[in-house]
Design brief:
single chain, 434 residues, Hypothetical protein af1432, 2 domains, 21 helices, 0% strand, transferase, Cyclic_di-GMP/3'3'-cGAMP_PDE
Length: 434
């Protein structure tokens, strides 16, 4: 069961109360219940089909409701879909309430702005281009409310710092919502035309095609991610003493990237970089990874080729972007004594400097068969001691701040036996995280 933090529950409750207040303010004039119920049923159908088949929200019907209905009636449109749709995670109640309250408030605000600017009269008269201004303002209001509520939930649920809870949300969603708003405006105009509501459904056809294309892209991305998981599992099987290490390095890389203020897309790339940083070990002979006793200089040189092997393995995965550079350079040191190329200072890509700190931190704080995990405080002290020589001080400082705020709670631990390797012999070859 995935628990919902108490602060998040309180936040959702407050948003739900605001939504209930907006729903209670029905206009004195007769409410167009037939149009409201029809739009609600259409939205519920679209949500079921689009969300289950393609994923993601589908707002044209909601925004058509904002352009056609009074604010309180428009706010009713998303409620049945939220209450009837299945919930994948538990507890279900706060998630259903959030799914109903957030779009209800957003469409209520959009309808208020649209009505205040005379948009409904322009829709009835099919008055173009004058209908575009109130519709655009309504779409902006809709998007602002959605992003404001989303950021508030992120801040309440944690561990995203308050100053970055809203960062990037509006910029990422505004273009998509604007397209949905244009489709919603076309639906509303056709709805009020002599051809009636049936003609409005024609607008949804090209939207569904675009969503199908979008879904194909996400399926391809999911296939890449499945490949990444398979590679990581293969590394864990081949080099058992690092089992779970890759996932934890990915988590620590995310902490550092978020503390540095990187946007969500780049944070995701850094997560992939951390997860895949040791994938090149698949190209290293298993006998060396499992060898009892110290490595010879020649054997160490072979193991030190694993960043180059890893880079070759992932170079064809285009969406990894700069993660490929992190895989290649995560063992470089700031003073130029690292490998494989002996880069120094700013020559080392920023992403690689992040993964290097995350890698060393997890190597020190993980419980292995040959040694007990160091306390986080001791690992941090060691990182700070090596900052400026081995590690970028800025990355070390970012990790220290992130740990002070949220602690270190890795989701994976590696406590299985390391294929019978004697503890003393294994410990003698781990001066530098591999």
């Amino acid at each position: 069961m995935e628990a919902v933090p108490a602060r998040a529950r309180g936040y959702v409750t407050g948003v739900a109360l605001l939504a209930a207040l907006s729903l209670s303010r029905l206009p004195a004039t007769p409410t167009p219940w037939a149009a409201t119920l029809l739009l609600a049923a259409l939205y519920a159908t679209c949500e079921h089909v689009v969300h289950r088949r393609f994923g993601g929200p589908f707002y044209p019907v909601l925004l058509a409701g904002a352009f056609l209905l009074p604010p309180a009636a428009a706010a009713l449109v998303p409620v049945p879909a939220a209450l009837l749709s299945p919930v994948e995670h538990r507890p279900a109640l706060p998630r259903r309430v959030w799914r109903a309250a957030q779009p209800a408030l957003a469409v209520w605000a959009a309808a208020r702005v649209h009505g205040a600017l005379g948009g409904r009269d322009a829709v009835v008269r099919s008055d173009f281009p004058h209908a575009l201004l109130p519709a655009g303002a309504a779409v902006l209001a809709f998007c602002l409310v959605l992003t404001a509520l989303d950021g508030g939930l992120r801040a309440a649920a944690g561990p995203v710092p308050l100053r970055r809870a809203w960062r990037g949300l509006l910029a990422r969603s505004l273009a998509a919502v604007a397209v949905h708003g244009l489709a919603g405006l076309m639906m509303a105009v056709l709805w009020r035309s002599p051809y009636g509501p049936v003609s409005a459904l024609l607008v949804l056809l090209p939207m569904c095609v675009s969503w199908w294309v979008f879904a194909q892209y996400h399926r391809e991305r999911a296939a890449h991610q499945a490949t990444i998981r398979a590679l990581v599992q293969a590394v864990d099987i081949k080099d058992g003493y690092t089992r779970g290490h890759s996932e934890r390095v990915g988590q620590a890389s995310v902490l550092i990237a978020r503390e540095l203020g990187m946007d969500d897309d780049r944070v995701e790339v850094l997560r992939f970089a951390g997860i895949l940083h040791d994938v090149g070990k698949l190209g290293v002979p298993t006998r060396l990874l499992r060898k009892d006793g110290p490595l010879t200089p020649q054997e160490r040189r072979i193991i030190e080729l694993h960043p180059e092997y890893g880079h070759e393995m992932v170079r064809g995965i285009s969406f990894l972007g700069e993660a490929r550079a992190a895989i290649l350079h995560h063992h470089e040191r700031l003073d130029g004594t690292g490998y494989p190329y002996g880069l120094a200072g700013a020559q080392i890509p920023e992403c690689a400097r992040i993964v290097a700190v995350a890698d060393a931190f997890d190597a020190m704080t993980s419980t292995r068969s040959y040694s007990r995990a160091r306390p986080v405080e001791a690992a941090v002290a060691e990182l700070e001691r090596c900052a400026g020589a081995h590690f970028d001080p800025r990355m070390v400082t970012a990790l220290v701040r992130a740990l002070a705020r949220s602690g270190w709670h890795p989701a994976v631990t590696a406590d299985e036996p390391a294929y019978g390797t004697p503890p003393a012999q294994r410990a003698s070859r781990t001066g530098v995280p591999r």
